[in-house]
Records
---
Amino acid sequence: MINYVNESKRFKYDSLLLALSVTIMISCDTLVYKTLDFYGLKITCSGILFSFYFLISTLQTEVYGYREGVKTVWIMVLCQSVFVMAIFTAAQIQPDNNQISVNFHSLFGEFWRVMLGTWTSVPISYFINGIVISILKKIFLGRFFFIRYIIASMVTQASLLLSAYPISLSSKYTFDELTVILITTWSYKVIMAIILLPVGMLLARKLKKLESVDTFDWRISYNPFTLRNNVK
């Protein structure tokens, strides 16, 4: 079933995907400083968790269309901003009144870097992901989901890391360490996307059936700053 974007259409599971998106991205903000050593390589815990948001973002565009994903991105940026500002402000208040406060300030005292990363990398990477998924879906007429998924993953992960990590992690790691983190994180994120591909294919088919919709963005505006759906 091929549908155009219909603003009056009420879906059953889009709110659940939105809630999961916000939860995952706020968790990623918190875990951005936590790295794991894997055979001499450093990977971030947030990078592992992010793979699941990429799956959700792709499902939203695949099933509901690009414009639905745009709404999710802006809501997510707002929620992340509130979260990061609250954590950063708390870290600045009486930072040395006890050992817990000292540790908290040491970890989150420069959390504003995550805020800058949120304002830049999140919109850039997720709009790129939505546009790539949307356009490739039209090019392939809805076929070859696995090809579209992998291509979008490679492009989106690169845009996210290059726009976020230099801002968020530059004060915590040297240039060489940051380069290693960028390369290894991109690699295992793409690997994670491949691992989650069967799950994505299954969920996409299931959601389309449950929602009775399979949106093709034939006549929409890709401008993320407009609220209207259709191109005149």
Note: The radius of gyration is 19 Å.
---
Amino acid sequence: MSQELLQTPLHALHVEEGAKMVPFAGYDMPVQYKLGVKKEHLHTRDAAGLFDVSHMGQLRLRGNGAAAFLESLVPVDIVGLAQGNQRYAFFTNEQGGIIDDLMVANMGDHLFVVVNAACKDQDIAHIQKHLPEDVALEVIDDRALLALQGPKAVDVLKRFNAEVAEMVFMDVKTLNILGVECVVSRSGYTGEDGYEISVPSTHAAELAIKLTAENEVEWIGLGARDSLRLECGLCLYGHDLDTTTTPVEASLLWGIQKVRRKGGEREGGFPGADIILSQIETKDVARKRVGLVGQTKAPVREGAELFDADGNKVGVVTSGTAGPNAGKPVSMAYVTTELSALAVKSSPKFAVKSCL
């Protein structure tokens, strides 16, 4: 018997707007609206798009030891994260694999954490399993999450609160919008400027209606969200990242600050530290995540195998789609390390075999 799908606080609004609804991470979610995926993608790049990402998990960690505790589960500098700032992080396991990736914000009296929808139950269990007595975990179930993305996002949102224009990338503030307290970060998952807005569920529809009433804004579904993030090289957990992939293999070294690496003030101390820190030092990994561009019009989809000129399998595609702004198909793949350097266009290093 199939499990009944969950609904976000904006579900009725999506249906009213004519969205095509699909199952995603246990929720009934809009994959596209009347514009269609390509036009939604291009509109976000040109103006501003509104995404319902309320299926994501929102958490609070409170207590004097909250930062040190969370830092013990991720290879990221959380203790040094300044108030009003946000940082990308990832939970790791004892083998150095990635359990999930997440966003962490220092709100002063607590940490505000956003985790992936498909992983939120396991993430909550993972946190609870290690939770010390001086730290409290609060699962937020009364707030929606909206993402306003695109070059004109700031022009739109500053009409609702002028302070957003003063924020820079990865800033986080608690702001009054339409008379309610919202947590606003200048960040997103599209490669564009924009904001993510945590708003009380009871006010989510009103805010969404007001935002989409602005001339620059259109509703954007999961289809364009995927093509936007892939076009700018952002990973999707469960596809480009998983429990068998280390941050080094995933080309995420930029997310591991020097203070957590060998010789750093707070070296190691997270699950899989010996493996990950050794990989950073020796650069000894068998595969690396790379970006690919297609040489034909057909997208190279997830699961397609990659071969060298001699017919040897050298990798596999983990995400692939058309690139509306790139003007050519774009993909992510894991390939053998020796082939992970930027390829010369006139001398392709490997071929693609579809296994779909």
Note: Residues 346-356 have pLDDT under 50 and may be disordered.
---
Amino acid sequence: MKKGLILEGGAMRGMFTSGVLDVLMENGIEFDGAIGVSAGATFGCNIKSRQPGRAIRYNKRFSRDWRYCSIRSLLTTGDLYGADFCYNELPKHLDIFDFDTYRRNPMEFWVVASDCETGKPVYKRLDTCDDHDLTWMRASASMPLASRIVEIDGRKLLDGGITDSIPLAYFESIGYDRNVVVLTQPESYRKGPNRLMWLMRLILRRYPMIVKALRDRHLEYNQTTANVRQRAAQGDVLVICPDKPLGISRTEKNPDELQRVYDEGRRIATSQLDRIRQFLADN
């Protein structure tokens, strides 16, 4: 039996996921592999480096730093979340990422990105978190309109949430048969059509397949979450999600709001510890 962890994105809703992961780490609950999408990748990687508390710490510290996330960064670098700051300066100098522990930990860590030319998801295992892997992580979190397209390994990539927000089916296809899914929206949430599709079509007009994926994203997302809920009701997967909408901006800069959502993740995870342990122990 291979135990997997699937981490949805959602920008700063990812503070909920960070709270959940910190509780899992603090209580010695481990997995054979994890797969993260967008913020689920950038915050979730701390479970492989075994660094509880890191994601909430640096987000609160730098949330109001223009280099981290700002219109100024978007206008001067092309990325709302500054690429050099987030994937170089921060993990290597300002809040050190434990690259050695990440490499030694046998747990697999995967990310999802979206191929602009095919409109399909691309899955990548990150074994070292070196600069090449960090670029894949950046691709997974590169939101359309708010980020440059990331070119790596012959592909042009954007946010993995465009094409596979909850990659349960992929993880099962590679042998993970006991999976915990962490969502950042409540069970009642249903996604609607993107209100900025007119702008997406304009900006991404050279990539008609990714435009199509963006157009249909709400349909795919709602179908996927319906399947996840059904699988959870049957006992095949375990879902951890908020009780109600988190009420946080995707680019939240208020440290108190970041802490509130993080604490909600901790509360939910703590209340379900016995259930999580039992689920992972069952064959």
Note: Residues 217-233 form the longest helix (17 residues).
---
Amino acid sequence: MEETPEALEERIAGLRQDVRRAAAGGDRPRARALRGELKGLEAAWERSVLGDDGPQDRRPDGSMVPLREQVHHALTLLGAPAAPKLVLRVHEAFFPGEIVAARLTSLRRDEERSFRTAPYSRPYYLCAALTADLLAPARGLLVVSTWPLQRRVVGPLSARTDFLTAATRIAEHTLRVPAGEAGRRLLWRFAASIPGAGAGGVTEPRPEQIIDAARSELEVHQEADRQQRLRAAGRARAQLDDAGQLFGARLRDVRGMSRPAT
């Protein structure tokens, strides 16, 4: 569910204070990281207040939008960890331009290499989600570095809650920006896997119906998933360095880390 402008403004104000404190204390890496998160919140506030007309496939100077920005656009709309195939479908449905699927294979590795070479030199990074048990990179799930750590961790219930979250956000988006054929196909795919979303009828599922059905099921799973993710995020902060919290623990680190109690 999208945050209200008021909630975003409150978080923005708090982050600005955190940036100032980090800079005043000489912690420049943390200040840069917080600044990247702040930019993401400010962009979310603009979308919430001014509406989202969608990014263009070219910048004002005529240059093409890089792949990482195209992926960032799609992930920001989804608001949850997503597989490259879903990122491609969302971009195709709602954004101009084209993502070359083959280039997604090396994207996360390129992002990690960039971070380790010059930490926090970019406003955001495209990372892998972290598994809640090992805090290792989750295979085939992309996230944005500026998201809260608990949103970048995935546990046993996360696949379903993230699917329902993405379905809600996509349906809400189509209420603001009419969907074309690719967008309607994407809505069908979501609706077909959500009981009560209307995919079994002769007419197209309505976005409102998808939203209601997804939120109803989210109420069943969301709190348990949130608690699992919070516990895992706490372990990640305690056990991993900055790079590990973004890109996951390496195999040699996993062997020496404590695992969650069963």
Note: The chain is about 60% helix and 5% strand.
